[in-house]
Amino acid sequence: MASRLNPYITFDGDARQALEFYQGIFGGTLSLNTYADFGGEDGPPPGDLAEKIMHGMLETDSGFTLMCADVPPGMEYRPGNNISVSVSGEDDAELRAYWQQLSADGSVSVPLEKQMWGDVFGMCTDRFGIIWLVNINAQQG
């Protein structure tokens, strides 16, 4: 297997909902492991931490991989704009469908439209606070 680069996003308790949301958009196979799944000899962690996501991965037929987790115990959750996820390609209909779903209930900072470099591009922040860049490559004619 070749090396791959993919985003890994940490959430403050809603990683399951975010991954299910992204699976609804991109399809694919979702693997979720809770903290309880890795409880060890001491058993599952107490309270609702047991059902939080220790590691989740979405792998799609398009070759996308997205990994997510809820903040582990003892670590501070520090959201910010230090991560964005880029989705690009040539399938106009597919990418526009992704855009519609990702931007719904979120905010659009750059509308999905033709840009000076010739591609159709947009940037939005989804309802979970994740910045998405969608680029539809210009058709070479």
Structural write-up:
The chain has two helices and eight strands; from the N terminus they run βαββββαβββ. The radius of gyration is 17 Å and the shape is elongated. The chain is an alpha/beta fold and 141 residues long. Strand 7 (120-125) and strand 8 form a beta hairpin. This is VOC family protein.
How would you describe this structure in keywords?
four-stranded mixed β-sheet; elongated; PhnB-like; 8 strands; 2 helices; 2,3-Dihydroxybiphenyl 1,2-Dioxygenase, domain 1; 2 domains; 141 residues; alpha/beta
Short description:
The protein has 141 residues and is of the alpha/beta class.
Radius of gyration: 17 Å
Instruction: Name the average pLDDT.
Output: 88
Count of DSSP strands:
8
Q: Uncertain spans, ≥5 residues at pLDDT below 50?
A: none
Question: Shape from CA axes?
Answer: elongated
Q: What count of structural domains?
A: 2
Strand ordering within the main sheet:
1-4-3-2
Main sheet summary: 4 strands, mixed
Count of helices? Answer: 2
SSE sequence, one letter per element: EHEEEEHEEE
What amount of the residues lies in strands?
A: 25-35%
Distance between the termini: 34 Å
- What structural class is derived from the secondary structure elements? alpha/beta
Query: How much helix is in the residues?
Result: 10-25%
